[in-house]
Amino acid sequence: MYDLKGKTAIVTGSGRTKGIGEAIVMKLAEEGCNVVITDIGTTKGEQFSEEHVGTTDEMEAIVAEAKKKGGDAIAIPCDVRFEAQVKNLVQKAKEHFGRVDIMVNNAGVGYIMEPFTEFKEESWDAVLDVNLKGAFLCSKHAAIHMIEQGTGGAIVNIASQAAKSGFPFAAAYTSSKHGMVGLTRSNAVELGKFKIRVNAVCPNHITTGLGHWQNKFFSEKMGLDYEDYLQGIVDRNPMGRTGQVNDIANAVAFLVSDKASYITGEAMNVSGGEEYH
Ligand SMILES: NC(=O)c1ccc[n+]([C@@H]2O[C@H](COP(=O)([O-])OP(=O)(O)OC[C@H]3O[C@@H](n4cnc5c(N)ncnc54)[C@H](O)[C@@H]3O)[C@@H](O)[C@H]2O)c1
User: How far does CA 256 lie from the centroid of its chain?
Assistant: First the structure.
């Protein structure tokens, strides 16, 4: 439908089973795109524990699945907080596939939530470093290659409803996601002359591993049963359901395709009508 044959995409944070990144990888692969599955790969202390991160084993399983869909796929571990690793990621992707056309900044930390007056400096840094600095570094190195190639490109930042509205206990997450929209707009204006389009997608609630963790966290805070909390989300939503990973993957496939060639600098809500500004 979107014909991405011959293109190469890097999708960060795509090494976690049932995550949004995995769904984006599968959709782009179905459209004929070669995909680089990249994730942190290993646990790193309490902030990046097994419960939350995509491991190298999961990454390899996703590579195998993506190869069945159409395009080729490889896994390259990368911690997006560090420029040397990001530079290496983009370089290796280019060496392997010969080009880099699409960068999807999906890696995110949405499970570090604390009351604002108790918010720890290291918690703030961890969230901002992955969500915002990571997107900055990956966009920068992808753009360098896209400009060298001279054939344009597309960058999509997976922001959030928290890029448009505030949420309790989530000062760092909300700030980082609002920041991603600023990064999107600034880069869209600056990189347009190289035919590089930059957009953001803003999902509301998607029941991935992270989404489940957030439901549990908020239902406990509100003293509600998990199922009742989830039903509340469904009842508030004009489309009467929570978001699914494919809702986001479809939006990304459209935005990176030529069908969206006049769309840049947008922060597109994919929220069933729950968020509309
Ligand atoms: N699930 C939702 O309800 C929801 C809603 C809005 C936005 N989002 C955003 O969508 C994106 C994907 O979320 P998800 O629900 O699939 O969560 P997820 O936890 O399944 O995916 C996040 C991925 O980011 C990776 N990651 C974390 N730190 C990293 C680092 N330093 N370097 C590289 N990778 C790192 C994790 O290993 C994980 O694979 C995130 O940016 C999240 O903020 C999710």
Answer: 14
